[in-house]
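[Q] Does anyone have a clean structure-token version of this?
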Amino acid sequence: MKQVAAAKIRRAETARKRAHPYAQTLAEMLRDLVAAVATVDHPFMREGKSGAPPGVVLMTADKGLAGAFNSNVIRMAEQYAQGHRGARFYCIGIKARNAVRRMGQGQHPHWPLGGAKLETARAVAETVSADFVAGEIGEVVLVSSTLVSMMSQRPMTRRLVPILKEAFSPSDATGAQKGAVEFLPSPEFVLSLLLPKYVEFTLYSAMLETDAAFFAAQLIAMSNATENAAKAIDELTIAMNNARQAAITKELLEIVAGAEALAG
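[A] Here you go.
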């Protein structure tokens, strides 16, 4: 499993890096659009229905044997749910589905992490977006893991919807000048099409990040398991040799005692 995790993490890390250019270009285009429009009339840019419970997209792996990787994310989601009564869960990953069932929410939308991730991200985005627009949830919060390094994976909570205009401040743009890009038929129309794509791709990027973080955690866990097994083998070998030596010594003492008794 250590070798399998080491092979899979390279592919997961490559897929995660390939998604960065698209994410960067999408963020820059959204910054240009937000700077070009005076007012944004889109459900994602407005506050959700007052009093509606939050929608929590809980993202874990499908499998375990990765140390505290899944439990850390689930614990953060539980803490968020304790502070927000009536939180509605949307689970990505089998471990997330099982954890939410243990919380007492038997019926909830869930999808596996494995498989076609883009189709899964699109389905999750459509589900949470429809519930947000319908007023069933007041906001959409994503709880997932981020890959800090091969030795560290950190759970994080971030709000996806509603999208704050300050999140795409023109001051964060990398050299883009206001008015340098023309949008047809209008910036408002293009922005209304890009905002759902932004939510969809954010979920897709989080799935790639979770995949890479899971294999990194599994690689570390399997390395520790291998080292612990080697230590256990050494300790048990020493115990076996001590027991064998004690048994041989006991037999020799009995033979010597018997010979002295016969000689006496």
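[Q] Thanks! Anything notable?
[A] Residues 2-223 form a domain with the Pyruvate Kinase; Chain: A, domain 1 fold (CATH 3.40.1380.10).
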